[in-house]
Structure formats: structure tokens, C-alpha cells
Design goal:
Shape: globular
CATH class: Alpha Beta
Strand order of the largest sheet: 1-2-3-4-5
Number of helices: 5
Oligomer: single chain
CATH topology: Aminopeptidase
Number of domains: 1
CATH superfamily: Gcn5-related N-acetyltransferase (GNAT)
Order of helices and strands: EHHEEEHEHH
Largest sheet: 5 strands, mixed
Strand content: 15-25%
Helix content: 25-40%
Length: about 160
């Protein structure tokens, strides 16, 4: 497969099943196969909404989906500008090594430049050396001084209800 044998296009509501398939495959790769809670119906509804909470580029070879980049807008207080957060970048195992991930990431980067975004950022699992090497090859810099924190489920509820 060469770079000319695939194409990229924006996701539409009708692509919800493909997006969900990729989300599940990525969750399995990231050793969290049972963590996916969303549904195709939710994704379809969100993509069809007047202000979708995310955007997505899909890579295709004919009618075969090869990968996706799912992202959303964030904001940098220091830069005083919006940015883009890349939530997921995934290429099917059989399609890897043919420039698809690079094309998807470059498409999101081009959109960030077009929108005058202050930055494009994402997180990568510390054990995912192939991804780390790939991102470094594109000029991305790891943020070693930062630790990601997260509140979900019961902890989120407790925090929201806490009274000082």
C-alpha cells in the first residue's frame, strides 16, 4: 500500500459504527478492552448536533476504513488561544507503516494552523514506545514535567458533592 492508495475525509454521522469500532480496537490495544462506554448511537447523535463535541478524520482505502484521528478544541490560558487536543489516533494493524497515521496527524496539524491554534497536544501511554518514536519523528516533544490527573465515576461525584 502506498500513500496514494488511501484517502482522508471528515467523519459524518453515518460513520459512527466505524468510529466506535476503532475506539474499541484502540481500547484493546491500550489494555482496556472493557473500558469503552459510548455507543454508535451516541457518536452519531453527537456528530449530527449543531456543535459536535469532537471532530474526526477517517482514512479509507476504497470502502475499507483504515484509521482515524479524533480531536476537539481546548484553550491555552498562557497563550490566550484555542488549541486542539488529539484524543485518539489509531490505524489498523494491517495498515500501519504506510503513512496513514502521519497523514492523519498532519491533517489535524494543518487544521490547527488554519485555525491559528496555539498548540496541538495529546497523551501517550508511557509503555507505547512505537507511538512515542512515531511522535518524536514528527517533531513532537514529550512534556516530562507534567502528570495527567483524572476524576471519573465515583471520585468525580464525590468531588462535585464535597463541602468544605
Amino acid at each position: 500500500m502506498t500513500s496514494s492508495t488511501f484517502s482522508l475525509r471528515r467523519a459524518e454521522p453515518g460513520d459512527a459504527e466505524v468510529i466506535l469500532r476503532f475506539i474499541r480496537e484502540l481500547a484493546s490495544y491500550e489494555r482496556e478492552p472493557d473500558a469503552v462506554e459510548t455507543s454508535a448511537e451516541t457518536l452519531r447523535s453527537q456528530l449530527a448536533s449543531p456543535e459536535p463535541p469532537f471532530e474526526c478524520w477517517l482514512a479509507w482505502r476504497g470502502a475499507e476504513p483504515l484509521g482515524f484521528a479524533l480531536f476537539f478544541q481546548n484553550y491555552s490560558t498562557w497563550r490566550g488561544r484555542t488549541g486542539i487536543y488529539l484524543e485518539d489516533l489509531y490505524v489498523t494493524p494491517e495498515a500501519r507503516g504506510h503513512g496513514i497515521g502521519k497523514a492523519l496527524l498532519r491533517k489535524v496539524a494543518a487544521l490547527a494552523v488554519e485555525r491559528s491554534a496555539g498548540r496541538l497536544e495529546w497523551a501517550v501511554l508511557d509503555w507505547n514506545q512505537p507511538a512515542i518514536d512515531f511522535y518524536r519523528s514528527l517533531g513532537a516533544v514529550p512534556m516530562h514535567d507534567w502528570t495527567v490527573f483524572r476524576l471519573t465515576a465515583d471520585a468525580l461525584e464525590r468531588c462535585a458533592r464535597a463541602h468544605d
